Amino acid sequence: MNKNITLENLMDEPGILSEYNPNSVDFDSASKIIKKFLTPIKEIQNLNLSDCLSKVLAEDLISPINVPNYNNSAMDGFAIKSNLKNNSKIFKIINTILAGNTSKFTLKNGEAINIMTGGKIPEGTDSVIPIEYVILSGNKITLNELPKTGANIRKIGEDIQKGSVALKKGTYLRPAEIGLIASLGVEKLKVYKEIKVAFFSTGDEIVKAGSPIKSGQVYDSNHYSINAMLQRLGVECMDLGIIPDNKELIKKILIKSAKTADAIITSGGVSVGQADYMKEVLAELGNVLFWKLSIKPGRPMAYGKIKSASYFGLPGNPVAAMVTFYQLVQPALKYLKGELNYLPPPIINVKSDALIKKKPGRLEFQRGILSQNKDGLSVKPTNLQGSAILSSMTQANCFIILDLESGPIKKGDKVKVQLMNGLI
Ligand code: AMP
Ligand code: MG
């Protein structure tokens, strides 16, 4: 990390920051600034496949075998040689092959072998005819029509060829990748070590769930939502609890966590209130790279460095904390984990079912409800859009993304929508 980076000389950074205004960084610049100061983890570990969900592959995975490993039947049916000179549609059944039978069988002209899905294709076979398409009488089958050559045969190596790159270095391992690796017979693999993420909530008014609460106090929802979002990413969580608005204490905790954590996430205290110390402390301990974004919700969000740790100071308001996490912190943590080519969930254009209030000046992530009706997809915002209305997040299934300079959206106009839930 460049030690001389300050708010002032950030403006000299080539490319991204020519129009940099520390009091109002736009979303794209914020994403670029964040990425510029991140160094992905390099340490590698050898893990059992069953422990690799949400880890990132640290080397290209070369397939040691062909998948499938042998020509096999895609259907329960009959293996035949169909392109006979006489175009005969009658075949004599000579045997049965179940999946798992490794013996070698050979077909002669005019013969058929009853074969099950996954069964090894006998020598001399050019196609498999599904059982539903034959007329069975005694030890003979009659076909209505001859199948195409290759029909219902899964060819050796058609999915993955031996020696080819099955998965690239930097791949984030989801259930599909875990299954694919197992299909290669690989049980141990090299993945990046998990990044460590320390997190705590700040605020004199914040109380842990499960404790009694007084009027004037607030239960700590951010702590739990942040912890849950981190767990979904599979990072190593360092839970530092709730820290009161005490500058010295905050400083001590940050210094300590920067020694072991790759990233530190806090919530609250980044705004301009009298007890908002995060930006000040960050400036004293490291570098503030930005602290005000032209997005809504989430205007006060700080990003900086404390030694080699990346610091994300999320807003205290619960919706703002979640929105800034999903939109800016999540891609950053994935990059730190070593994931290459991370793409955020796709954004689609759909019709708005309602008038959407919006003033120009900030990029908005409104909480939306996307639904399917007879005319296709349409979206409407949840009733309340305040940055403290966490129920807007639970009701929503998508973000409605409204551009910085956009004004209100008329009912019937198209808007950009980003789904919150990925299937895998
Ligand atoms: P702050 O960013 O510290 O000014 O806080 C903004 C608002 O978010 C205040 O109403 C806080 O009470 C609330 N808030 C801050 N931290 C949390 C938290 N961890 N859980 C729920 N609400 C919070
Ligand atoms: Mg506070």
Question: What keyword list fits this structure?
Answer:
424 residues; alpha/beta; 6-stranded mixed β-sheet; 8 helices; 30% strand; elongated; binds adenosine monophosphate; binds magnesium ion
Could you characterize what this model shows?
The structure is a single chain. With 424 residues, the protein is an alpha/beta fold. It is built from eight helices and 26 strands. Strand 8 and strand 9 form a beta hairpin. Helix 4 runs parallel beside helix 7 and helix 5 (247-260) crosses helix 6. The two termini are 35 Å apart.
Distance between the termini: 35 Å
The chain-level structural class is: alpha/beta
The count of helical stretches stands at 8
Q: Which ions, cofactors or small ligands are bound in this entry?
A: adenosine monophosphate, magnesium ion
Tell how many strands the DSSP assignment holds: 26
Brief sketch in words of this structure:
The protein is an alpha/beta fold and 424 residues long.
Set out the fold topology:
Elements: H1 7-10, H2 27-36, E1 44-48, E2 61-62, E3 72-73, E4 77-80, E5 90-97, E6 111-115, E7 127-130, E8 134-137, E9 140-143, E10 153-154, E11 165-167, H3 175-183, E12 188-192, E13 196-202, E14 206-207, E15 218-219, H4 221-233, E16 236-243, H5 247-260, E17 263-267, H6 278-285, E18 287-292, E19 295-296, E20 300-306, E21 309-314, H7 318-336, E22 347-352, E23 363-373, E24 376-381, H8 391-395, E25 398-402, E26 414-419
Parallel strand pairs: 5-6, 13-16, 13-17, 14-15, 17-21, 19-23, 22-24
Antiparallel strand pairs: 1-12, 2-11, 3-10, 4-6, 4-7, 5-9, 8-9, 18-20, 20-21, 22-26, 23-24, 23-25, 25-26
Helix pairs in contact: 4-7, 5-6
